[in-house]
Each structure stands twice: as structure tokens, then as C-alpha cells.
Amino acid sequence: MRQTHLLIPTLRDDPSDAETNSHRFMVRAGLIRQMAAGVYSYLPLGYRVLRNVERIIREEMDAAGATELLLPALHPSELWKESGRWDQYGDELMRLSDRQGRAFALGATHEEAITSLVRDEVKSYKKLPMTLYQLQTKFRDERRPRYGLLRGREFLMKDAYSFDATDEGLDRSYRSMYDAYSAIFNRCGIRYLAVEADSGSIGGTDTHEFVALSGIGEDTIAHCGECGYAANVELAQSVPPDAERTTAARADSGQPENPAAGPQLTDTPDVRTIAQLTAYLSIRPAQIIKSVALLVDGKPVVALVRGDRELNETKVKRLLEASSVTMMSEADIAAKLGSHPGYIGPVGLGPDVTIAADEQILSMTAAVVGANEPDRHLTGVAPGRDFRIDASGDLCTAVPGDLCPNCRKPLLLDKGIEVGHVFKLGTKYSEPMRATFLDDTGKPRPFQMGCYGIGVSRLLAAIAEQHHDEAGIVWPSSVAPFHVHLIVASSRDDTQTALAEKLYDELRRAGIDVLLDDRDERAGVKFADSDLLGIPIRVTVGKRAAEGVVECKRRRDSEAVQVETGNLTAYIRSLDV
């Protein structure tokens, strides 16, 4: 294709709103343009990359036995009400009404739509298993669209849904999609981890995120370089390296409090934070039990963690098998706990308050806790003796230095971009939507469902985020908009122009996807644009055109190689890009 025929509006300067390398380079390279916050147009080169990613996805999904379809983007509210998500999904769901006042939503996800379709069309176990997928635009009213394609309000997604008759069948479908996703991300050139994750608003049981490692990622991943354990920090299990019994020690005595003495009321005027309490009592944060007041499915819960750790609300939700977890307001703390912010503690709480404890505090024998009255704390408190524990488990967020739960080696924490997610939904949607089939005994049973998503447009940004240098993008050859960028150093030199035209035809006949830069621009401008666009191989027809010699350079290399034009096609094919 000729560059003079394409819309490639490259920019010399970074866009003012770009916060990431992928965003600034994709805008500067003329791949995307913003229409509104979180809403982008794909220009010709950007669309070619998108199509290459789509091709890889389709090939691997088809190879895994899935079949493609296309579902509506406009959903009647009745479907979402059947599943219970019309009210649960929240403000991210873009809602609208037609001229008759009937409520609709633009598809943020398609569990309801696919369940409705299969419910109406599949009646027998003989049609199972079945996996259907689509590539389609999704709409979510993000509170803060940012990072270009990484967090948008309109984006392209590949979503797939499996339908099985049994749990064992769902396990097989899940494994098949997990393997297909691994193949997709490998072919796209992504460095990624498959990590245990929370199912969020989609729901379900077993779930894994595929996370592209990147310093600008919004997810934090805890992983072990020794045994391969990996999980989103929301779910990561860990073993603290200092798991010894903790006692509350006073610096003035130098000795632990006597556990048998029981709780002692201590004045702590204007001391509300962990940092203030450690300084005032001359103790370590690990000697404090931090009490966090929550509303879990609307009911009062006080969650307990050591003072040197952070509570993980996702783990609280999973421990209590809840749908929602929110922080209590100051008014709720007073009304439901009879306490005060900064002085909340578990001692004396009534039976209507659930006390959930992190397992690290169970062995503490003389801890410091809030006294539920202003300016006072209790010292010498022992869990189980001085207050009840209704539920316990791992409730802390993993931190560097924690040990892997499998092999006890130190965990690594890295940032990442979620590019794919696979879920075992089970009957979360089929039961409330009455989606059933007849089994081999003629008995109706709900479908066992799985859900599998890839953020296709986000994947483009993740690839660019991992593959760039100071000059621009360095596309992996599998997704690059073209394989070869053929540049005429001087378009006013007839010899150069004639040779470039000859090579352009030869490369195309050889099946090589080539972009010919035939613009009347200075060579320096063409080279800068070529680096910015990131096409894997650059061929320059320059001063040695009359000798039948051109320069050939891989985008990731600093030096070019002189190649005779008769050997050019074979040389390009031999390059590892």
C-alpha cells in the first residue's frame, strides 16, 4: 500500500493528555484519535493492527472448537432484571429509553443475552457441550476514562460463553479456553501471567486473569519466581515472615504485658491512627489489632487485622460469601457499633455485629485495640478470651517480603494490565433465567456455564506498552500493520523511485505486506515516522540505488545491513522479527 493513499497523521509532539507510552505513541503515530473521553476512532494503521489481533483470536478460538456469532449491543432491561443485575451493576451500565419509554442498556457484557439465546434454542444434552464467541463493541460509563485504550467507555471485546451438562464438562471447557488464551497472548508477543482472581460483578467461582506485566498497570500481581504461583493481590495468599506470637510491649517496662491480667483501659488523648498509637505507647504496629468497620450486604461487620497490615475487602467478601462490602460512615459507626472513628475495637460488640479476624491475630496474647470510646484504647487484649471471633481467614493484602503459600519463597509484586479473564459461572445465570436442557433421563437441568473475555482494544495498548523505545512503537510481526516499510530516500531521484517501485511490486508478489513511503518529504522525516510507526523491517532505497543495493534494518536494531536487491526477498524472509 502507498503511504500517500493512507490517512496517517503523525505528530511530532506528545498529546497533552497522554499519561502512558502506549497512549502517546498511538496518538503520535496516527493510529487512534479521541472523539470524546474514553471514545476513540481507529485510523487505518490502528485498524490494521486491530484486525491482526482479531485474526489471531479467531484462529485460536476456532481451533479450540468455539464458533462465532454476533449478539445485539442494545439490551432490553428485562433480560438484566431476570439475572438480578439491572440494579446490581451500578452506574457503569449505560442506560437509555426508547420513544415508548421502554428501558434498555448498551451491552457492557453479554451473559444475559447469550443465556437468553441458548435457553430458547438448545433443549437437549445432545447439543452439548457448546462454546459461542463474538467480537463486539462494549459500553461502560467509566467514572474516569484514562490511559488511552486501556480504560475506555467504548471498547472492543472478545467474549465467549461455554454451555455444558456437567461440572466435569465445564472443567474441560474452562481448560480449553485457558489454553486458547495462552496461545493468543503468546502469538501477540505479550509477556503475561495467568493469575488467580476475583470474579467481580460477573460472578461465578473459579476464575483467572491474564495480566500483561507493565509498570503502569492498575492491577498488582503477587507471584513466585520459584514455583509459578500467581494471584491478583486482592486474592493472593501469603505467609508473613514474622509469624511469631505477638505481644503488646511497653517501652517503659521493656517487658510484655501480663496476658493473665486481662484488658487494661488506657488513656490515649487525640490518638486515632496506627502511627500515632505506636508513638504514644512506644510499641510496634504489629502489636496492634486494627478494627475496620464495614457494611457487608448491608449488615455491620468489624474486620480485624494486625496494625502493620492492610485489610483486603475482597477477601472479607469471599470469607463471608457476600455480594457487597463498603466502609461504614461515621454515623453508621455510632449507630451500629456505638463507637467512634479511630477508637473502634472488638471488645464488647453486640451479637448483631459480625467479627471477622485475619488469621495472623489469632495467636496474639496481649494486643492493643480501640476501646469504643473517645481517647481510649485497651491493652493486654487476647482474641478469643476477651472478644469472640465469628469468622477467620486470610484477610490481609500481600506485601513484598511475604512468603509464597506453596513453596515458602519470597513473593514478588508487580504491576500489570488485565487483558483477559476466564470465569466458571456454573448456574449463576442459567438458574435465575430458567435456562435449562433435558438430560439423558429427560429431566430438566440448568446449563453449567463459563465466560471468557479478552479486551481486544486494550490488548493493542498493552502490546504497545511492552513494545516500544524512545522513538516509537516496536510492533511484534504477528500484529504489525505492515511487515516491511519501504522508503524512498529522495522521491525526486528517478533512479531511487524506479527501483522502489520495482521492489514494491516484487515484495507484494512474494506475499509480503509492504507499505511504500512515496511521500515528497525529507529523508529525516520519513525515518522518524518509520520509527514511530514501528513496522518490523525498514528497507531504504537510497544513494546506492544505481548499484542495485538497498539498506535493510529491523526496527529493534540500531544498524542497517546493505543488501543486493536480487537477494532482498530471501533476506527479509530470513529475519527474525
What do these coordinates show?
The protein has 577 residues and is an alpha+beta fold. The chain has three domains: 3-237 and 413-464, BirA Bifunctional Protein, domain 2 (2-Layer Sandwich); 259-393, Alpha-Beta Complex (YbaK protein); 484-574, Anticodon-binding domain (Rossmann fold). The chain is built from 13 helices and 31 strands. Strands 3, 7, 8, 9, 10, 11, 12, 21 and 24 form a nine-stranded mixed sheet that branches. Strands 16-14-15-17-20 form a five-stranded mixed sheet. Helix 1 packs across helix 10 (456-466), helix 2 packs antiparallel against helix 6 and helix 2 packs across helix 10 (456-466). The two termini are 21 Å apart. GO terms for molecular function: aminoacyl-tRNA deacylase activity; ATP binding; catalytic activity, acting on a protein; proline-tRNA ligase activity; transferase activity. It is found in: Cytoplasm. One of its GO terms (biological process) is prolyl-tRNA aminoacylation.
Classified by CATH, the class of the largest domain is Alpha Beta
What share of the residues does DSSP label as strand, in percent?
Answer: 25-35%
Count of separate structural domains: 3
Query: Which ranges are low-confidence, i.e. pLDDT below 50, for 5 or more consecutive residues?
Result: 243-256
Q: Look at the structure and name the CATH superfamily of the largest domain.
A: Bira Bifunctional Protein, Domain 2
CATH fold-level topology of the largest domain: BirA Bifunctional Protein, domain 2
Estimate the helix proportion, in percent.
10-25%
Number of helices: 13
- What is the terminal separation in angstroms? 21 Å
Q: For the report, how would you describe the main beta sheet?
A: 9 strands, mixed
Number of distinct beta strands: 31
Return the structural class. Answer: alpha+beta
Mean residue pLDDT = 92
* CATH A-level architecture of the largest domain: 2-Layer Sandwich
Q: Please tell me how large the radius of gyration is.
A: 30 Å
Global outline = globular
